[in-house]
């Protein structure tokens, strides 16, 4: 009887180690996702929009009794971000409709964009179309549409696609213009097909809470996040594999769509109010809001000195005031 060569035995051991690591990673990721979904169930209703599940939460006035207001969250978020404080400030005056964007919170990804090895993503235009059809189902036909951060690009796409069915736009720290350079290696890796399949499961399974806390701190900088924000928002929902893939792919592929939309900005004729912090280092005002108001004659900008990327939490009344101004300009108040 001959013995197995050493190099073959080493190879078998390495393959077994790799297979074991894959199994452990997928098991741990699945368990963490199940825990997140148990702890942070849907707050609203799940609509079927042409076979795609869309999470919608409505608060405030009855349909037809007050202006409809759609709130669209930013990257790595969900509609809980809007319910932490802002929505309750608006319910006396508006019918507030909050939505989860595709792949985030409890909304499905669009067909053709799901799967571990997928490398494509939902465009801002496709997201706007999906969410527009969802709010039509709940009776909103001429809403004010507010978008924060990445959600701002979806709000702009909404206004371009449905100019006669959009009363006004409110852009809060919004990605509204093309930017120079790239978004960095992290988004390039996690936004790729191979990164989504190989890297993101590791993040879902093993990213520690300290990294999540640090990320929240950087998003709010130079201010601090409100007490209880991290626990309320459901950060582990954003760490699910489908959500991390969707977010990374959407953000990493946004620039060409911004370039395309910019060519159509002369079609934006509805009232537009912008609120942007002067110390926002994630979506800088001088690259986005300050350029947008020069591109779009109906746009008006309120700069908030010293405020970072989250003005709807740091100075929420400024955002409420911007919504009220948009409503008045649109003839809804």
What does this structure look like?
With 333 residues, this protein is of the alpha/beta class. It is 45% helix and 14% strand. The protein is built from 15 helices and eight strands. It has helices at 6-39, 80-83, 124-137, 150-161, 185-190, 193-198, 200-206, 209-220, 229-233, 235-238, 241-252, 254-262, 289-295, 311-314, 316-329, and strands at 45-49, 52-60, 68-72, 95-99, 144-148, 168-172, 272-277, 299-304. Strands 1-2-4-3-5-6-7-8 form an eight-stranded mixed β-sheet, sandwiched between helices. Helix 1 packs across helix 7 and helix 3 crosses helix 4 (150-161).
Produce the secondary structure layout.
Elements lengths: L5 H34 L5 E5 L2 E9 L7 E5 L7 H4 L11 E5 L24 H14 L6 E5 L1 H12 L6 E5 L12 H6 L2 H6 L1 H7 L2 H12 L8 H5 L1 H4 L2 H12 L1 H9 L9 E6 L11 H7 L3 E6 L6 H4 L1 H14 L4
Parallel strand pairs: 3-4, 3-5, 5-6, 6-7, 7-8
Antiparallel strand pairs: 1-2, 2-4
Helix pairs in contact: 1-7, 3-4
Quantity of strands, as a count: 8
Helix count equals 15
Instruction: Give a quick account of the main beta sheet: strands, pairing sense, barrel closure.
Output: 8 strands, mixed
Kindly report the average pLDDT value. 93
| Sheet/helix structural class | alpha/beta
Strand content is 5-15%
Question: What is the spatial order of strands in the main beta sheet?
Answer: 1-2-4-3-5-6-7-8
One letter per element, helices H and strands E, the order comes to HEEEHEHEHEHHHHHHHHEHEHH
Distance from first to last alpha carbon: 91 Å
């Amino acid at each position: 009887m001959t013995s197995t060569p050493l190099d073959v035995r080493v190879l078998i051991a390495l393959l077994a180690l790799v297979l074991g690591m894959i199994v452990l990673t997928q098991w741990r990721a699945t368990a963490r996702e199940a825990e997140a979904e148990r702890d942070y169930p849907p707050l609203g209703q799940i609509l079927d929009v042409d076979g795609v599940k869309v999470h919608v939460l409505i608060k405030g006035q009855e349909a037809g009794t007050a202006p409809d207001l759609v709130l669209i969250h930013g990257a790595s978020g969900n509609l809980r971000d809007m319910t932490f404080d802002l929505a309750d400030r608006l319910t006396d005056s508006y019918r507030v409709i909050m939505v989860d964007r595709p792949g985030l919170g409890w909304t499905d990804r669009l067909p053709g964009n799901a799967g571990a090895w997928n490398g494509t993503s939902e465009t801002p235009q496709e997201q706007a179309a999906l969410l527009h059809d969802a709010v039509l189902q709940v009776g909103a036909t001429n809403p004010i549409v507010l978008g924060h951060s990445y959600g701002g690009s979806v709000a702009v796409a909404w206004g371009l696609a449905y100019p006669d069915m959009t009363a006004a736009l409110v852009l809060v720290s919004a990605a509204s213009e093309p930017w120079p350079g790239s978004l960095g290696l992290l988004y390039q890796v996690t936004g790729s097909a191979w990164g989504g399949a190989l890297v993101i499961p590791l993040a879902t399974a093993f990213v520690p809470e300290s990294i999540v806390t640090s990320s929240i701190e950087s998003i709010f900088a130079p201010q601090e996040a409100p007490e209880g924000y991290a626990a309320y928002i459901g950060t582990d929902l954003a760490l699910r594999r489908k959500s991390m893939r969707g977010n990374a792919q959407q953000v990493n592929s946004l620039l060409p769509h911004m370039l395309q939309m910019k060519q159509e900005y002369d079609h934006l004729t509805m009232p537009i109010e912008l609120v942007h912090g002067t110390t926002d280092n994630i979506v800088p005002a001088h690259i986005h809001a300050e350029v947008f108001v020069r591109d779009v004659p109906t746009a008006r900008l309120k700069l908030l000195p010293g405020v970072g990327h989250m003005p709807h939490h740091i100075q929420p009344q400024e955002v409420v005031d911007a919504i009220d101004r948009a409503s008045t300009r649109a003839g809804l108040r």
